[in-house]
Amino acid sequence: MTEMVYGTLSVRENEPILPRWWRTVDGWALSSVFLLFAIGLLLGLAASPPLAARNGLEPFHYVQRQAIFGGMALVAMLVLSMMSPRAVRRIGVFGFVLAFAALALLPAFGTDFGKGAVRWFSLGFAAVQPSEFLKPGFVIMAAWLLAAGLEINGPPGRTWSLILTLVIVGLLAIQPDFGQATLFLFGWGVMYFVAGAPFLLLTGLAGLVLFGGMFAYENSEHFARRIDGFLSAEVDPTTQIGYAANAIREGGLFGVGVGEGQVKWSLPDAHTDFIIAVAAEEYGMVLIVLIIALYAVIVLSSLWRLIRERDPFIRLAGTGLVTVFGVQALVNMGVAVRLLPAKGMTLPFVSYGGSSLIAMGIVMGMLFALTRSRPQGELGDHFRPVGAGR
Amino acid sequence: MIRMPLRPLARVLDARARGENPDAIERENIRRRHYEMHDRFRRRSEGRILLLGAFFLAAFAAVGARLGALALSEPREPRTASAAGVGIVAQRADIVDRRGRILATNIGTYSLYAQPPLMVDKAAAAQALAGIFPDLDERDLLSKFSGKRKFLWVRKKLSPEQMQAVHDIGDPGLLFGPREMRLYPNGRLAAHVLGGASFGREGVSAAEVIGVAGVERALDDTLRDPANGGRPLALSLDLTVQAATRRVLEGGMKLMNARGATAVLMDVHTGEVIALVSLPDFDPNDRPRRSLGGDPADNPLFNRAVQGVYELGSTYKIFAAAQALDLGLASPDTMIDTRGPLRWGRYRIRDFHDYGDRLSLTDVIVKSSNVGIARVAQQIGAGRQQAFLKSLGLFEPLPLEMVEAKGSRPLLPAKWSEISTMTVSYGHGISASPVHLAAAYATLVNGGTRVRPTLLRQDGPQQGERVVTPETSRQIRHMLRQVVVRGTASFGEVAGYEVGGKTGTADKPKPTGGYYDDKVIATFASIFPASDPRYVLVVTLDEPVETSGPKPRRTAGWTAVPVAAEIIRRVAPLLDLRPRIEPLRPPAVTLTGN
User: Fold this and answer.
1) Which of A43, A72, B50, B128 is disulfide-compatible with B169, CB 3.0–4.6 A?
2) Is the pLDDT of residue B561 over 80?
């Protein structure tokens, strides 16, 4: 059949999987993810030797582990991205049940590795952080419930997904991990917003979050100390943020040179939460701008594809996944440049960390599966400018 | 909106007639409606997703902009913002006397602290430190250096020699922090007024100097207030007068074998305390620790002039006399019945000597007759007496600018009965501090307006409320002068300065109740020059004994008065008082003839 209109997608019967995947996947975003992972490895070469030296390991031990985990993450991502939205939904819901159970069992079987928050299961060779794996499953589950709620004769999906979110937030708050809890709350809020939440309710919700934050400030010393550190005008140069800000200043536009950085020796979290500071010091602002641009490309390109999506579940799940991914990147970088109070969040695909890497691989794999180009019905769509409203 | 039923009856009937499943119609309708809904939802979401995209774009741009601002700014020397360093204002204002001479100032010195993780040879360092500072224990130091601590203070202040010696140890873990320390260059002079200072919050690079007693503590906020710009605090004290007073008093205390002594010199118009000495005293540069146990009055930190609340004896008689004059109950020449003993219930009031049947009011004061003044007090009555003493400030703690002033609350009779009225009139059963007494005398003799004592330099006389009439004030001055001229304080005469005053010798109360026979508080409250008083001087000796005669003498006339006279002789010229010398007889004209 002739393609009558530019841009329409032909549905070809019995097309092999790989060519069809290649034809329909979001190439821009995919390339960006690979680039980010490569940058992450490069930075790992700079940032992790001090940690390896402290733990008595060979210098590039952590880079090797990162490469192995990264390989697993990329495979998971590619496999997931080849699936149909229906399969993604099934896997997501199944994964959600598993991860949720793991999260609920944390207080009984988890460990805190001496960091004051019970967030991990120790498996001997690696530590698993269930809240990372819960993210993709949660987004799929909540999107499914919200989408089902929009159907005729559907279940009350909104209420159910809200209850689910609050339970998860509660579980995270007792760890305590207010950063992740906020991320889940925000992710659900965005999905609800896209699903058509009334604006009045959204402002109310924002107020509630503010109130909750103030409550946490009053009642959690851990939380209050971080906020205080952020609000004080002077940076204490002996804190992580102080080191990070100093490193960024030292780096300037083009950096002090590969391997010349100093901040990685003084920052305990140089390879995870503050990797951006290491990057800024050694490679300068140029690399950071590139990293920011890559994240922006991933987020915006995915959103652009989701705008045209007709299926509510795909649209909601897609925006949810993009939000989780984008917000995590934003918070991590925002902390490093002192736009946000210190919050332990990894930089997706760049920071060291098995759980986070694989979980982000799953998130992006699902996102790519959902953003693949597929026929969207009416011919009239192509004559109507996007975003023209109702 | 037209609502389309999901199961239109006509079509359902139609389908049934044809033998088809009518549910298929409903499913088809739902599918169609979903399609429309999805279209509608998508249109609604489009704008919202665009908004989300805009939010992300803006957020990434903000991070980028902030990063640019940070990366392109110049690296600055990091400023300490740790909790220890925040807001330590090191500069403390100087304290000067009324002529601007320094009483308290700061000097730069160093503190010594150790960071054991940086130390090279802990054992050698501990040994060397114990050698430099004999009060440090080597083993104790070594255990501290070897423990888990990463930081510890070793000494708060170092002399330059000590600092060099520590420097010569050469251990990188021994470090110096700059310090400002309080210095009192005059040593013991005015120690009780100044109090002392010590370190408050301490950081490596600075430490707070806070007052611990006296003016330093009471005006701590003012001294540390950066808004004052380090402007020195001017006290009312005069350094030279203070030095002379202290010197004479110390000699007098030894001569009179007294346990302690105090002298207060006050300006009668302004209430300024020109000199305030309490012996024994201490060096505020090396303030002794508060001693526990023992009589607090023997502690050198005890400020007798302010905290020493004593029964001041006959010096109170002038208050009853002044009130009687002011109320018009008596004139200076009114004759008072002085036949003793005066019985009141089970009490007897008697005089030191028998002064005969009657004395004029002036002579009651001059001879210090207890019986006479008690009769005057009876006429005045308890209510009026209390109101009058209260108006002289004898009921409240002193308003002085030092923390110890809170401890100067006078002791009053629990129940002000008529016998209390009588004993209070000659200064028994009521206690107040020497500064109280000085202020009350100043009030009476300055023309009759209330004076409140102060330690800060004043610009002009106090405009206090009127307590007695100027005429009463004049009569009082005359009476006080007569006490020196022909009464109990005859040793108080200082040529040219017209000293007036009133003695008081009070038996010391026993802690167990009752009074000692052989322990007194001897007080001389003096004014000079009596015709137009400028100053009040109160000298109080604690347990004086004058042993030059055949019998030990303890009365104020033999003990406190000569000491006070010597102080006045020394101090009056320093206060720019010109002695009034009787004019020489005009040369007579002698006729000479030749």
Assistant:
1) B128
2) yes
Structure token pair of residue A258: 């590969």
Q: What is the CATH number of domain B95-234?
A: 3.90.1310.10
Q: Which residues lie closer than 8 Å to B224 by C-beta, 6 or more apart?
A: B89, B91, B92, B93, B208, B209, B210
The beta strand positions in chain A, using DSSP E, are 121-122, 127-128
Q: Is the pLDDT of residue B76 over 60?
A: no
Give this prediction's pTM: 0.56
Q: What share of chain A is helix, strand, coil (3-state, %, to 5)?
A: 70, 0, 30
Which DSSP category does B159 fall into? -
CA–CA separation, B475 vs B262, rounded Å? Answer: 28
CA–CA gap between residue B478 and residue B472 (Å, rounded): 10
Mean pLDDT of B306-327: 90
If DSSP codes are grouped into helix, strand and coil, which group holds residue B249? helix
Q: Tell me whether residue A382 is in a domain.
A: no
**Is B81 in Cβ contact with A236 (below 8 Å)?**
yes
Residues 6 or more apart whose Cβ sits within 8 Å of residue A192: A146, A158, A161, A162
Query: Residue A71: which domain range?
Result: 21-224+295-374
Question: Is A229 part of any domain?
Answer: no
**Are the Cβ atoms of B45 and A196 closer than 8 angstroms?**
yes
B238 neighbors B425 (Cβ within 8 angstroms): no
| Chain A residues closer than 8 Å to B64 by CB | 288-289, 292
Taking a contact as any Cβ pair under 8 Å apart, which residues of chain A between 215 and 234 contact chain B?
232, 234
Q: What are the structure tokens assigned to A158, written together? A: 């909104």
Cite the residue boundaries of each domain of chain B with CATH code 3.40.710.10.
Answer: 241-283+305-574
A262-271 LR contacts (CB < 8 Å, sep 24+):
A264/A46, A264/A47, A264/A49, A264/A50, A265/A50, A267/A240, A267/A243, A268/A240, A269/A240, A269/A344, A270/A47, A270/A48, A270/A50, A270/A51, A271/A44, A271/A47, A271/A48, A271/A51, A271/A62, A271/A351, A271/A352
Task: Measure the CA angle with vertex A51, ends A47 and A56; round to 5°.
Answer: 140
Report A:249-308 residues touching B (Cβ under 8 A).
249-253, 280, 284-285, 288-289, 292, 295-296, 299-300, 303-304, 306-308
Structure-token match 């019945």, residue found: B337
Residue B184 tokens, joined: 């009192």
At A191, phi and psi to the nearest 5? -65, -45
% of chain B with per-residue pLDDT over 70: 93
Residues 6 or more apart in contact with residue B255 via CB below 8 angstroms? B563
pLDDT block averages, 10 residues each, chain A of length 390:
53 77 89 92 84 81 88 92 91 92 84 72 77 90 89 84 91 83 88 84 81 80 69 61 79 81 75 83 89 94 88 91 92 84 81 86 92 72 50
Q: How do residues B398-448 score in pLDDT, each as one tens digit?
A: 888 888 888 888 888 888 888 888 889 988 889 999 999 999 999 999 988
Instruction: Decide: B217 and B79 in contact? Cβ < 8 Å.
Output: no
Element (H, E) at B34: helix B23-71
Chain A residue nearest residue B33, CA to CA: A152
Task: Give B201's pLDDT tier (boundaries 50, 70, 90).
Answer: confident
Nearest to B480 by CA among B448, B502, B504: B502
d(CA B213, CA B278): 15
Total structural domains within chain A: 1
* Res B73 pLDDT > 90: no
What is the per-residue pLDDT for A299?
Answer: 94
User: What is the DSSP pairing of strand B342-344 with strand B347-349?
Assistant: antiparallel
Residue B306 in contact with residue B402, Cβ under 8 Å? Answer: yes
pLDDT tens for each residue of B429-441 = 899 999 999 999 9
